[in-house]
Amino acid sequence: MSIDTETARRVAKLARIAVDDADLPVLASELNGILNFMEQLNEVDVEGVEPMTSVTPMRLKRREDVVTDGSQQEAVLANAPDAREGFFAVPKVVE
């Protein structure tokens, strides 16, 4: 697939990027380079290759999935303009 200047203009418009007419050939060339690189990547055989999180093999850090209160109630309520009995106090809205 090849990108011409008209397609580059349309892509710029869809991306809401202001591109001068003089810069459209450069943009088209850069988009063609990106597409060529993507075609090269599609040629790579990845059959049997497991997905990785990094180029160096490592195990993700995990913690036990336990529900807690966060032990920060006092710190959170310290910033509240009005707090009562461990909760935010707000004005009554519905009567």
Number of helices: 3
Structural class: mainly alpha
Following the backbone from N to C, one meets helices and strands in this order, namely HHHEE
| Largest beta-sheet characterization | 2 strands, antiparallel
How much strand content do the residues show?
under 5%
Helix content: 25-40%
Low-pLDDT parts are none
Q: Give a count of the beta strands, DSSP E runs of length 2 or more.
A: 2
From the N-terminal CA to the C-terminal CA, the straight-line distance is: 66 Å
Largest beta sheet: strand ordering: 1-2
What shape does the CA trace take?
flat
Overall pLDDT? 89
- Rg over C-alpha atoms, rounded to the nearest angstrom: 28 Å
What would your notes on this structure say?
The protein has helices at 5-14, 24-42, 73-77; strands at residues 83-84, 87-88. It is flat. It has three helices and two strands, in the order H-H-H-E-E. It has a domain at 5-42. Strand 1 and strand 2 form a beta hairpin. With 95 residues, the protein is mainly alpha-helical.
Quick rundown:
The chain is mainly alpha-helical.
Question: What labels describe this entry?
Answer:
two-stranded antiparallel sheet; 36% helix; 4% strand; ligase; mainly alpha; glutaminyl-tRNA synthase (glutamine-hydrolyzing) activity
